[in-house]
Specification:
Shape: globular
Largest sheet: none
Strand content: under 5%
Radius of gyration: 15 Å
Structural class: mainly alpha
Oligomer: single chain
Number of helices: 5
Number of strands: 0
Distance between the termini: 48 Å
Length: 109
Amino acid sequence: MAAAAAAEAGPEEPSASFQRYLTRLGALRPLPSPDCESGRRTELHLLFDQLICENCGPVGAAPGPSPQDVCALLVQACRLVPLNQEHLVSKVCQLIHHLLNRFQVRRSG
């Protein structure tokens, strides 16, 4: 029902879509033990895939997220990925490359 209402309301603003992902990642915390990794690994895979595939700006007229928001999302993503999970490490590297290029985030200074 909510999905139908969202579809009728039209496309979501790109920065709002990005904020939703930032909030979802921000709600996750690093796992205390490797025993809990299976569900988290799947959740992170899906979330990273969605972020890579999501068309959340800046292509088009609507502004994309701020460089600070892009960096905050990437920092949180890196914190959540255990280094012993090679596929997730590769996926987060792909995400870094994709978001930095898509939103033209540049180092200041």
